[in-house]
Amino acid sequence: AQDIIYELNKYYTEYIKTEDQDFLSVPVYVDSPLTVSATEIFLRNPDCFDEDTLKLINIGNNPLDFRNLKFTRSVEESKQINFSKESKVIISASGMCTAGRIKHHLKHNLWRKESSIVFVGYQANGTLGRRIKDGEKVVKIFGEEIQVNAEIHSLEGFSGHADREGIIRWVKSFKNKPKKIFVVHGEEEATEEISRKIEEELKIKTHIPELGEALSIEGESVLPGGRLEIDRRSKELREIEENIEKLKSIFWPTFQRLGYRTNDGADSGELNNIKNKLIDIQKNILDLNMIITKRKDKKGNEK
């Protein structure tokens, strides 16, 4: 968030030279208690700033403050942001939209065509942020289905995590190089790539732990420590829930387009193909109902 405030400050400084004063009147809200606290820590420790930032401070330009920047702490202040009808910029968390005040802001603004949602960080698979970024048309927030009518944008380069080259530079800076590096916290393709890079460039052995894998580090040795029992069922249930949400988001728009197409002079071959596809869908739905009914009957008998 501090990077974004810093860049917005530079933009406002340049923009103030133009004749368009309307843009300068748009308030920017930082609505995240943790972000507010972190920004205050930055402001209290200017001795930690780099040379460019200190130059800005010396000419009276606070890099973490600018016209119309507002910080909100209380829940009531956060609610008031969505009650006002003025144009505004809202910086909020969590970054992947899984929790925090951002979910309330999405609930109030995702359905508005005049809104824009800008992602400035990585969105992991399965998160609300990833589903929105990937183009889902309907998402569930606080149990309510919300249409995604806002424009969705993504800005790369603001991640708080080090990239591949940053990690390599960091490991190179060690006086005493590790004998082995465990590569975690990343998707499969990314972890495999950074693991290969470390082994080829730094000549250090790596290991990518699997889910549930336990290891024992004794001195300079890494020994297998068995496996932890993982509740796979919960993962399967999450995948089913995600698939249901995806189907719900594409089901109605597809049938709307289907209605337009069948009324738009489709030839007999295309109509026959559509009819067969609909029969397949109907059969699959009936099969699902049979599975659900059998499960209910089984649970009833167990009681």
UniProtKB/TrEMBL annotation:
GO function terms (MF aspect): hydrolase activity; RNA endonuclease activity
Keyword match Hydrolase: yes
Listed Pfam families: Beta-Casp, RMMBL
InterPro entries tied to this protein: Beta_Casp, MBL, RibonucZ/Hydroxyglut_hydro, RMMBL
Gene3D superfamilies for the chain: 3.40.50.10890
Beta-Casp domain: residues covered: 1-132
Name this polypeptide is given: Beta-Casp domain-containing protein
